[in-house]
Design goal:
Length: about 80
């Protein structure tokens, strides 16, 4: 099932399918390792949902909610926790 990174719950993971946006924001995400095919695990969310912390390519990355909304994942229905 496809979901935006900003929509998944803590403990869920998925594979990056596509990155929307353009220009600097898109380039910045690619530079941080957020590329199609990368595995993403949602570790933490702030109380209001911004920022979020994910594990991608074996390191922790903190993203703003508006950045997470640009990332589409293929998500399994299983929760890890």
């Amino acid at each position: 099932m496809e979901k935006k990174l900003s929509e998944i719950k803590i403990g869920q993971s998925g594979i990056v399918k596509k990155i929307d946006g353009e220009g600097r924001v898109r380039r910045r995400l690619f530079d941080m390792g957020v590329t199609p095919g990368a595995s993403v695990y949602l570790r933490k969310k702030a109380p209001l949902g911004d920022p979020i912390e994910v594990t991608i390519r074996e390191y922790e990355l903190t993203l703003r909610k508006d950045e997470a909304e640009l990332i589409t994942l293929n998500v399994s229905d299983e929760e890890v926790k």
